[in-house]
Amino acid sequence: MDQLDRKIIAALRINGRATYADLGRAVGLSASSVHERVGKLEAAGVITGYHAVVDPSSVGLGVTALVGIHPTDTATEDDVAQALGELDEVESCYAVAGDEAFVVKVRVPTVDELERTLGRLRRIPGVGRTNTTVVLSTRFEGRPNNAGLQKDRAGGA
To answer: What pTM did the predictor assign?
Structure first.
């Protein structure tokens, strides 16, 4: 991955719907050259997908919580992670260092639904207990993180 690939990625993270012509103008390449590079980045697994960013409250998901998952002594992390992934309310799952094995981001319509979701989480085999932090407001989320994409890192790329 060279500097032009990094610029293309940075531009796509800001606007995933940009045309190849738009990207080409932004990075100084032809649309066909950008198309080829994006294809290679997708094939290599650097670009893993495109999605729409939706305001959660506008689709009825007004409550967000971060839930720490403490495993039992006999838990297998892969099984717990798979079960967490089967719950629609779990938006993100992070394996973390510390007492908790995972931190999950949960979005639900109401506090009552959060309580029911926590009950479902606690019934997953291998989950010993949970620790929940309710989000009061979101200052920013899902912003493009282009750290390291604007210039070559030490050691080259």
So the answer is: 0.81
